[in-house]
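Lecture 7 notes: from sequence to structure.
We start with the chain below.
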Amino acid sequence: MDAYTEMKSPDGSTVKLSLNFKRLYMLRSKNKTAYEHYRQAVIKLNSEDPEIDDFDQIDILYAAYLCGDVENCEKLLGFEDFLGIMPEDHVEMSMLVGQVYHGLNEEKN
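Predicted structure tokens for the same chain:
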């Protein structure tokens, strides 16, 4: 069973986010750059003195976006286009990272 978190874009549409281990494993093969950016952000996030900035959080959410439909990730938005659907509220973005990475309030599908 996959767990998803929904992200609402500024236009009101939603996309599914997932950091399911199987999906991350698939992403590692399908988009090595996105996976590596995710991995580096997670290393920062889990360090003793985390210094994670907005773009580290976005790297985590972008990987989660690609994993949400990893079977078709090559057809999904590129990173720069993904920035256009990100929530404009920084607190909301941080909460999404908490939901998708730490499993807070996940919707089970």
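Points to note: The longest strand covers residues 3-8. The two ends are 6 Å apart (CA to CA).
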